[in-house]
Amino acid sequence: MTDDRTQGAREDRLLRMGEPPRTLGEAWRKLVWILPWLVFLSSPVHDLAAGAHRPAATAAGWAGLAAFTGIYLALVFRNMGRPFSEPVVACMVGVLGVLAVVLTLTLGGAWIGLFVYVSVVCGTTFPLRVAYAAIPATTVAMVLAGQVVGAEAMWTLVLLVLLVGFAMTGVRQLVRTTVELRQARATVAQLAANEERLRLARDLHDLLGHSLSLITLKSELAGRMLPGQPDKAAQQVADIEQVSRQALVDVREAVTGYRRPRLAAELAGARVALTAAGVSCELPAEPALDGVPEESESALAWALREAVTNVVRHSGARRCAVEVVRRQTLDGPLLELCVEDDGTGGSGSGSGGDPGNGLTGLAERLEKAGGLLEAGRLKRGFRLVARVPAAAGGSVGSRA
User: Fold this and answer.
1) pLDDT number for residue 288
2) What is the CB neighbour count within 10 angstroms for residue 297?
3) DSSP H or E run through 280
4) Fewer CB within 10 Å: C terminus or N terminus of the chain?
5) In the prediction, which pLDDT does 6 show?
6) What DSSP element (H or E) covers 282?
7) H helix count then E strand count, the chain
8) Environment class of 213 (CB within 10 Å of its CB; exposed 0-12, middle 13-18, buried 19+)
9) H-type helices in 260-346, by residue range?
10) Is 329's pLDDT higher than 60?
11) Degrees (nearest 5) of the Cα angle 191, 266, 251?
């Protein structure tokens, strides 16, 4: 639970691609991500600060530059979460284009870099079909304006305007895909939870429906027999007790099955826990568990949970490697889990001379599943090896 909260807090601190900022801090971080791209405004700023224009032209230039920058930032910032409507976007991009042309033609070639920002907003805000036409049109407008004012850096910027515009269309597609994947993952998780609830309801109905009906029937019979046939009534009560006990056993087995840990889920949880604890981890992909008994998988999942808990809480390790492999032995096929860290450990983790309570209980759990536990210190670190039968009815024995 603590690891989940830590991971959730860490994810909350990340910038959520394609989503609006939820707090003022997120808004500032998104803005800081945008600001470095304003480097092309340094040339117009230097041109105005140099005093090369008349006071009225300088004032108009500052006003035009402020309006251009404000519109650009509004478009890009809003596009990260809650974009403007298409007509508003079209008008704002048109104003940017007009400002870029007017400022370049009136104040000189130092302002030619404004077309880079026009290309950026075309790539990030327009639909792809429109963007693919608007970006080359922006480039052509820049070339024409640059030829009129004799801008020296115009041809250097031609390729940049084209590339940055089309690159932003790619970034926009990436953002859209990321958002869609996040939504799809949430939908899949919700569907899985609904399916699990339905399965639990079906299983409980199948388990308890017959038993409760039988208990009800026998209770009615016992009630009718009780005044005149106490012996038969007592037999019905005994049957009720037997059915109730069996129903209780069935429910416990069903609940145990739902609570049974899965190795794939524990591997994912181990990655989260180790990463949150600052431990460099090497974990395998989801293992193939075809034919592996549920009891064996459950025991191995408990072993992984116990081992990772010890690494996080007690070992002080910087690195942890997890390996899951199938082996063929004289005792039959087995599934082996190896967890190795480079920490110093402690007595509470079982890394010292005597095994801790967790490892003792784990050894008993593995033994019940026909498995075997080996744990001990290395020259540098600690290693835990758990082996379970990979086939029904198997036993690891003493040899691996």
Assistant:
1) 79
2) 22
3) strand 280-282
4) N
5) 44
6) strand 280-282
7) 12, 5
8) exposed
9) 263-276, 294-310
10) yes
11) 65
